[in-house]
């Protein structure tokens, strides 16, 4: 289950690019909290703590608001600097205990298949519906003992209790294929390296 992380928020009353730069220079992050059908809340979050928290997929945040109340939230959109990767702005979605939310959960492949094979991973995430305070940190998919030709579809993945699939059940997650032999690799390499044969000029043709 995703760990709940507490962040202390400050009210934000200045807006615009200049205000955002001043906030970031103070090692804080401008953020907006959205709720369906309600007014968004503009806040400022602590920079370092927020960066650590948002390394986790689907981080469940407990935002301690300036008025002393607590609000649960999930990251909706995270903007990072293209060079430094530092947080520049965060959009959060307010959630509530007991509310079911749609999220993408990372897939982790575990176990070892039979023999020398090639593991082809097609999906690294699966979309599910889960209770906001009970989101899985990841979903483990075991390929232990599988042989060439085996496939695992999204619908084959075993989900935790109270987690509902919200994805294409026929989509491929992982397949086990035959590994290329040394002879095949050598033949491929020789074919790629072989120089193209030059055509001999036909009789009567002269080079200019």
Automatic annotation (TrEMBL):
Boundaries of every Large ribosomal subunit protein bL25 L25 domain copy: 7-92
HAMAP family noted in UniProt: Ribosomal_bL25_CTC
CDD domains: Ribosomal_L25_TL5_CTC
Classification via PANTHER family: RIBOSOMAL PROTEIN L25/GLN-TRNA SYNTHETASE, ANTI-CODON-BINDING DOMAIN-CONTAINING PROTEIN, RIBOSOMAL PROTEIN L25_GLN-TRNA SYNTHETASE, ANTI-CODON-BINDING DOMAIN-CONTAINING PROTEIN
GO annotation terms (biological process): translation
Large ribosomal subunit protein bL25 beta domain span: 101-179
Residues forming coiled coils: none
Subunit structure: Part of the 50S ribosomal subunit; part of the 5S rRNA/L5/L18/L25 subcomplex. Contacts the 5S rRNA. Binds to the 5S rRNA independently of L5 and L18.
Source domain of life: Bacteria
Family: Belongs to the bacterial ribosomal protein bL25 family. CTC subfamily.
Cellular component aspect of the GO annotation: cytosolic large ribosomal subunit
A molecular function (GO) term: structural constituent of ribosome
Region (Disordered) location: 184-208
Keyword annotations from UniProtKB, A to Z: Ribonucleoprotein, Ribosomal protein, RNA-binding, rRNA-binding
Function in brief: This is one of the proteins that binds to the 5S RNA in the ribosome where it forms part of the central protuberance.
InterPro entries xrefs: Rbsml_bL25/Gln-tRNA_synth_N, Ribosomal_bL25/Gln-tRNA_synth, Ribosomal_bL25_b-dom, Ribosomal_bL25_C, Ribosomal_bL25_long, Ribosomal_L25_dom, Ribosomal_uL5_bac-type
Protein name from the UniProt record: Large ribosomal subunit protein bL25
């Amino acid at each position: 289950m995703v760990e709940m992380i507490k962040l202390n928020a400050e009210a934000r009353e200045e807006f615009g690019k200049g205000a955002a730069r001043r906030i970031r220079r103070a090692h804080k992050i401008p953020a907006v909290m959205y709720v369906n059908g309600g007014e968004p809340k503009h806040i400022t979050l602590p920079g370092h703590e927020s960066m650590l928290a948002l390394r986790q997929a689907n981080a469940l945040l407990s935002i301690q608001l300036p008025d002393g109340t607590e609000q649960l939230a999930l990251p909706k959109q995270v903007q990072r600097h293209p060079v430094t990767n530092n947080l520049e702005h965060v959009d959060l979605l307010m959630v509530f205990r007991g509310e079911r939310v749609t999220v993408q959960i990372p897939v982790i492949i575990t176990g070892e298949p039979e023999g020398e094979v090639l593991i082809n991973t097609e999906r690294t995430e699966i979309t599910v519906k889960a209770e906001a305070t009970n989101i899985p940190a990841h979903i483990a998919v075991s390929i232990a003992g599988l042989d060439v030709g085996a496939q695992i579809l999204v619908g084959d993945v075993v989900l935790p209790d109270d987690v509902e699939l919200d994805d294409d059940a026929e989509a491929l997650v992982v397949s086990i294929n035959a590994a290329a032999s040394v002879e095949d690799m050598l033949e491929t390499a020789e074919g790629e390296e072989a120089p193209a044969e030059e055509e001999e000029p036909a009789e009567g043709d002269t080079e200019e």
